[in-house]
C-alpha cells in the first residue's frame, strides 16, 4: 500500500506578489508547487532564487513557486524589510511571510534553504535541503507533468503572481561605493544590474556602466576596488567589480568605459578546497560580495562559500586565501579558519578588516592570522555597545577604516553605523535609524558616506556624532534539535536525483565532516570520514551548542554515454539542546528527493 502525505496548509502572517490575496492550497490545486523555505540574509537561499528562475520560465504554465520566508535574524521578521528584500532580489513569485516559523515546523525544515515539492493533488512528493537541485527538480517536474496530464489532474494556465510597480529614482538598492581619483563616486547599483559614476555629492549621474538588464554584463554587482596605478597600467583596467550573481569578476576601465570579464567561469563553485593557483577565467567562483587590495593582490569576500579568495590581475590567477567552506566562527592561522558569509572588506595598516555577516562579527587578518574583534557566533546577535566581548552586531555588510585606526561597521540589520576602537576595545554607535546600510566609505577629505541600500541613496554622516546604545540581545528562534546526552547516531540521508547514481570511480563518493561549537559539546565523533552515518557522543555537561555538519556526495548521470558529473554539498549549523528525554538519532537530508511516507 502506498502512503501519501498531504501538504500542510499555507498559513502565514501575510503575502507578497499576489496583489494582496492570501493563497491556499485549494487555490493552487492542479499546479505543481515548489515551496522555497528561505531567509533573505542567507547567501545559499539567494543562490536558490537564481536556480529557480529558469524552472519558472520553462514550466511557467504548470509550475508555481511559493517563497516561504522563515526568518533567522530579528530584522528579517519586519514585514517592511521582507518586502524590500523581495523587491531587491527580483523575486517574481508569491511569497508568504512565515514570521512565526509555523510553516517551517509544519514542513519539518531543518536548514536554509529547504525545498518541498507538492503535486497537483496537494500531496508532498519530495523535499531537499541546500542548493544545486535545479537538474533534479527538472527531472521530477517532467515526471509529474506526464503523470498528472495522463490522469487529468494537471491544470495549465497563469499562476497567481502579481508584479509590483516599476521602481523609480537614481539608484535602486545600491550595494558598495568607492571614491575615484577626481573625487567622484563609483557605486554598484545592484538591483539595476549596473555600476554608476556619481558626482562627489552623490546626487547627479555622470555615467552608467552596463545595460541595466540582469546578466548584461552585470547581475546584482556588489564590491568595487581601485587597483594601484602600476597594476592598472598592465591589467588594462583600473577598477575590479564583484559581479555577484554571475559568480564572476569584471574589470572596468573608467577612461574608456570598457567592461571585461577577468575571473570566473560563470558556474557556481561546487568542488573541493585546495591550495593551488587556478586560471582565473576557468575557476568557479561563488557570490563574490566585496573586494579589497591587500597583500599585493585583490582579496575577494567569497560570501557563497564562506571564504576569502585572492585574485592576481597580472598573472590572471585566483586561489583560496582564508577559510575552509565550513560556516562558523573559528580563528587562527589562515587558511584553516571558519567564516560565515564574509560580505565587507577594508584594508589599512597591515590589517584586512572583515564584516563576517552571518556570525554578526567584525574580524581581521594580520600577519597571516585571523582574529575576531567583535562577535560570538552564528546565532548570537543584537545591538549592544560597550566592551567588545559583550558588544553585538546584527548581520553587518560593510566596513571602513578611519585615520585614527578605528573601524566603522555598516551594521545592516540594526540600521546603524557602529565604531570599534582597537585601542580601548570598545564598540559605540555613530548613527542609527538608517535603512539597511550596506557599505561605509571614508573619503580622502575624511567625509563618511553610507550606502543606505533600502532607502536607495547615499547619506553623509555628521562628524563627531557618537551615541551609546544598550539594546536587546537576540538569539535566532530557529527551533533547536533536542538530543539525548551521550551516544547519538548522525544519519545523513542521501538519494541521488532522478537519472543520477553515486559515482565511485575516484574513490568513495561521499564525505562527512563534523565539528561542534563549543568544541566541548562533542566528546567523540569529530572529524571527516567517507561514511554518511556517524556515532557521536554528546557531553551531558554542556547544555547547548551547535553541531557543524558538512556532507557531500558525488554523482553522475546514469545510462548516458557521456554523462555529466555532479557534486552535492550541504553545510548545516544545527542548534542542539541536550535533553535527557530527547532522541538518540539526528537525521539530516542531503539533496533529499526523499519520498515522504
Description:
This protein is mainly beta and 597 residues long. The strands form 10 sheets. A 7-stranded mixed beta sheet has the order 1-7-6-3-4-5-2.
Instruction: Tell me how many strands there are.
Output: 45
- Rg is 24 Å
> Portion of residues in helices?
under 10%
Task: Compute the separation of the termini in Å.
Answer: 11 Å
SS-based class: mainly beta
Low-confidence stretches: 592-597
Q: Provide the residue-averaged pLDDT.
A: 92
Order of strands side by side in the largest beta sheet?
1-7-6-3-4-5-2
Major pleated sheet: 7 strands, mixed
Strand proportion: 35-45%
* Shape type: globular
- The number of helical elements comes to 5
Quaternary: single chain
Task: Record the SSE blueprint.
Layout: E1 5-6, E2 15-16, E3 32-38, H1 43-58, E4 63-69, H2 79-88, E5 95-97, H3 102-106, E6 114-118, E7 123-129, H4 134-151, E8 177-179, E9 185-189, E10 194-198, E11 205-209, E12 224-226, H5 229-235, E13 239-243, E14 248-252, E15 259-263, E16 278-279, E17 288-294, E18 297-302, E19 307-312, E20 317-322, E21 332-333, E22 342-348, E23 351-356, E24 361-366, E25 369-374, E26 380-384, E27 386-387, E28 398-401, E29 407-411, E30 416-421, E31 426-431, E32 437-442, E33 448-452, E34 457-460, E35 470-475, E36 481-483, E37 486-494, E38 500-502, E39 510-517, E40 522-524, E41 527-529, E42 533-538, E43 544-557, E44 565-578, E45 585-590
Parallel strand pairs: 3-4, 4-5, 36-44, 37-45
Antiparallel strand pairs: 1-7, 2-5, 3-6, 6-7, 8-9, 9-10, 10-11, 12-13, 13-14, 14-15, 16-20, 17-18, 18-19, 19-20, 21-25, 22-23, 23-24, 24-25, 26-35, 27-31, 28-29, 29-30, 30-31, 32-33, 33-34, 37-42, 38-43, 39-41, 39-43, 40-42, 43-44
